[in-house]
């Protein structure tokens, strides 16, 4: 299938090209030329397949003209080599735990698929992965691309705005992974990445690729776990599913909406955010007005100008869906913390701020017992060990992998929030 640029419908390219360039002209995001449909009567049959075979099948609906099913299965097998679990919290509320991958966040799904498929499509030329992170993307990208031939990785993140553990997890690797602490917030980092992509000189000299959630490969990979969630639900409950998603750049929600558009019978999505509530305000007023980014407990969601939003508008438009039906809620740090405490004391469930936001939004919107509520667990609580230990007065053990990274030296560079400075660094090191 082909993919088109949302900002310039004449730019139509293959999956391989979209994978490599990431962003199109005028900063346009790529979008599938059509959404493959699965007929309702075939859904249960597809849900009966195992996770790897089903995921390969779903992805093949988008890319089968560019990769054989045999190769795709191999790639999916390497990328999704960790479990995902639907855990019952209480009555009709479940958590889809997506954080059992190597860097303990759901980002492992998208990024590991991307690194495997990029490696498959680019054997000769050197590619530079340039990405901004508010925490978890950095770790997922660094680990997914570590030691992969011909791929250099540069990760920008806001200095002192991510947890030490998050930082250690991706800033200690070295080799083909370079990390830069920028004096600014996540939106500043994202801007430096965008400016690099727009820079004609750089574009002509090197192949730049952003592995952040605007890359179409990451997005389609994330469809797979929505189907898996349904596979783990009994048939009688499949018509009443409400899914609450902790949103930052809205990639996760976009993937969810694509699965619905493909035919997965999700009754309703809830877009849960922290105090960075641009989308909630937009849904109420119709005016897109990002404010200054606010730092919160759920730092991976500290985004005031979510970069996947144009894709969501596109999906609503092509499906003729009513944007008023998208439910959104903005949750304060105070309620986030209370939710973590409540989940622990009432249900013995240990969670972390991002997932807790999705839990609270679900809890406050679910209406009757017939509804089957799922909130997405996007990060492992151990990633926020100090904070969780403090508020729950417990000691959670770090998984061994994390303990080892904590002992290593941080290799990051410190940069001002300045494009020329950054560009000079790129020229010096890669051109
Ligand atoms: C990135 C991230 C999010 C936000 O996901 P988006 O796809 O950017 O909306 C939520 N929770 C965690 C733990 C994350 O790392």
Report on this structure.
- The protein is an alpha/beta fold.
- The protein folds into 2 domains: 83-104 and 216-392, Rossmann fold (3-Layer(aba) Sandwich); 108-214 and 407-430, Rossmann fold.
- The chain has helices spanning 15-21, 40-48, 51-63, 69-79, 107-121, 136-145, 164-171, 186-198, 200-205, 216-231, 251-262, 278-285, 309-319, 333-347, 353-365, 385-392, 400-406, 419-430; strands at 3-5, 8-13, 30-32, 85-90, 93-97, 127-132, 151-158, 177-182, 208-209, 241-246, 268-273, 327-330, 372-377, 413-415.
- The strands form 3 sheets. It has a 6-stranded mixed β-sheet with strand order 4-5-13-10-11-12, with helices on both faces. Strands 9-6-7-8-14 form a 5-stranded parallel β-sheet. Strands 2-1-3 form a 3-stranded antiparallel β-sheet.
- Helix 4 packs across helix 5, helix 6 runs parallel beside helix 7 (164-171) and helix 11 (251-262) runs parallel beside helix 13 (309-319).
- It is globular.
- The protein binds pyridoxal-5'-phosphate.
- The site of pyridoxal-5'-phosphate has 17 residues, from helix 11.
Q: What name does CATH use for the topology of the largest domain?
A: Rossmann fold
Q: Structural class of the secondary elements? A: alpha/beta
What's the overall geometry?
A: globular
**Tally of helical segments:** 18
Small-molecule binders here are: pyridoxal-5'-phosphate
Q: Quote the distance from N terminus to C terminus.
A: 34 Å
**Main beta sheet:** 6 strands, mixed
List the uncertain runs: none
Question: How would you classify the quaternary structure?
Answer: single chain
Q: Strand fraction band? A: 15-25%
- Supply the CATH architecture of the largest domain: 3-Layer(aba) Sandwich
Radius of gyration: 20 Å
Query: Mean of the pLDDT scores?
Result: 94
What number of domains? 2
Give the strand tally: 14
The amount of helix comes to: 40-55%
* CATH class placement of the largest domain: Alpha Beta
